[in-house]
Amino acid sequence: MLGRFERGGSGEAVxxxxxxxxxxxxxxxxxxxxxxxxxxxxxxxxxxxxxxQEAYASPEAAMQRLQETGRP
Length: 72
Hints:
The chain has about 70 residues and is α+β, with helices and mostly antiparallel strands. It contains two helices and six strands. Helix content is about 20%, strand content about 30%. Strand 1 and strand 2 form a beta hairpin.
């Protein structure tokens, strides 16, 4: 769960994705799914790629990106 400061702000957040955590570089309410373009509230963010530094709205979106790129 993110702290109040990290959730603060409005609009799209800028995030650095780590192996088991994430760092909010610029506060915001959401990030965008790299596959669907859907807004993902930061508190609901569960799927991302460290290598590509992308967020995904669902496991299906993550799998689609994996199939498109052919690598994790």
